């Protein structure tokens, strides 16, 4: 069984998924060790399916059970650990709500990365490593123009999590691997 981290895009506010019914639906579908983290679209689960099949099956479950299509990005636990280890801004983890990781659906073009990097202002830092963009917003993501435009500038679907959430999901994945 492989441990997967399932990230839902655009969940939160009025667009929340109720975690208990979601967890039950995933368990009913045969996923193991299903755990959710806050109501903003974070699930850790185990499966013997490959990553693409997990994306398809979870997407199908959400559309059938909750009546709406939902974009999902999935990474296995090994890749998640690599994302955490590759953080180019280790000095920012002391203020984890200012460090954001955008998990991208695919690797962006070099031109798109250069465009994103050219938009850094006011102490913000951005680095793209493969299919992950790291953004440090010392004054907060809420006022960062760059944070709001990462996906648009990279031209790749993405979903972002702050460093606290990244670490909590890693902890949950490690626990799922031992159960």
TrEMBL record:
<protein>
    <recommendedName>
        <fullName>DUF1697 domain-containing protein</fullName>
    </recommendedName>
</protein>
<dbReference type="Pfam" id="PF08002">
    <property type="entry name" value="DUF1697"/>
</dbReference>
<dbReference type="InterPro" id="IPR012545">
    <property type="entry name" value="DUF1697"/>
</dbReference>
């Amino acid at each position: 069984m492989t441990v997967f981290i399932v990230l839902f895009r655009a969940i939160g506010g009025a667009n929340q998924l109720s975690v208990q019914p979601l967890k039950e639906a995933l368990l009913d579908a045969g996923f193991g060790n299903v755990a959710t983290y806050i109501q903003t679209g974070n699930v850790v689960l185990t499966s013997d399916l490959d990553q693409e099949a997990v994306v398809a099956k979870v997407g199908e479950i959400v559309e059938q059970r909750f009546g709406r299509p939902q974009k999902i990005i999935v990474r296995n636990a090994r890749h998640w650990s690599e994302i955490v280890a590759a953080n180019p801004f280790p000095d920012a983890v002391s203020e984890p709500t200012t460090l954001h990781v955008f998990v991208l659906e695919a690797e962006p073009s070099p031109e798109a990365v250069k465009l994103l990097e050219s938009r850094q202002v006011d102490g913000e830092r951005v680095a793209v490593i493969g299919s992950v963009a790291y953004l440090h917003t010392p004054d907060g993501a809420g006022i960062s123009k760059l944070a709001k435009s990462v996906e648009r500038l990279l031209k790749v679907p993405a979903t972002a999590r702050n460093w606290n959430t990244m670490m909590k999901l890693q902890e949950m994945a490690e626990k799922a691997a031992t159960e």
